[in-house]
Amino acid sequence: MAVLDEIDPELMRLWSLISELSDQLTQNRQQVVHLQQQADQVKGQAVHCGSGFALRRWNTDISKEVFESELERMNAHLVVENQTLNHENKQLNILLKEYEQALDVIMTKFRTHAHSTQTHDLALTRHYEALLLTSQSALMNSSLQTSAQQTESLARLSHLLRAALRSLQGEPGSPDPSPPGSPSSPEKLVARGLAPPEESGDWNLDREVELARLEAENSMLRSLLGIAESSPEERRRLLEDWERENERPLGGQGAMSPFAGMGKRRGPRTFSRGMAMQPFVGGGGQFGPPPMGQGRGQGMGMGEGGMR
């Protein structure tokens, strides 16, 4: 048992004393039973001696005076022996009661100590279980808060990237729909394309397929319009030259996009405002191609001047 392993040496010594006392009590009881048997035998012999049949039967050669003297001596010896046995029985009974009282006191203390130890262990276990539950709940709450903050940060970053792309194309930037510090709702995230709708199980696959289709359509339109896609190094170099010449931040008021005139330099076809880019999100949070030819800044279409 786990409780017996934690008992101090004092209790072990008491336990050994209790075992010794129990053994001694067993021996004393055996001796009492043996003495009672001897007393019964002596009583039987006294009955036979008092009747005189045995002596008269086997000791016919002894005279009456010798017989009476021997009988008196035997009776006196038996009386003394009976008194001694009674005294020993009384002493053994007293000792047995003392042993029982001592054993009762020891077992009472042992039960009290075992109960207090078990109660302490159970209280300690409950305390640590409560601490574990509290720490787990705190970790879950912190992880949920961190996930919500990351989702909000991704939403704001996506909005800023779209605003930067629109400013690069010469379009006016749209204000942030969500105020700072307010968490974005799931409906807004679905409308922006940052979170999958609950009804669609293959939202990621549909999104990748739609993006691939839009990229292929964009490449085909560029090839038809005669606009070659510039490399990232060329775009970076043009951005640096444009910022160095204008000396104003990217996407500010009055800033011109370095890619606005690419259509005029690349071929005979020109555009009044270049190519306009929109997010790949249609109305109602659905992906789809942008509408063609619905005015300035809508979809990937022609500007005011058209194709000349």
Automatic annotation (TrEMBL):
Coiled-coil stretches noted in the UniProt entry, renumbered to this chain: 82-109
Compositional bias (Pro residues): 174-183
Keywords assigned: Coiled coil
Name of the protein this chain belongs to: Uncharacterized protein
Record's keyword annotation contains Coiled coil: yes
Region Disordered: start-end pairs: 168-204, 270-308
Compositional bias annotation for Gly residues: 294-308
Entry similarity comment: Belongs to the SIKE family.
InterPro entries: SIKE
Keyword Coiled coil set for record: yes
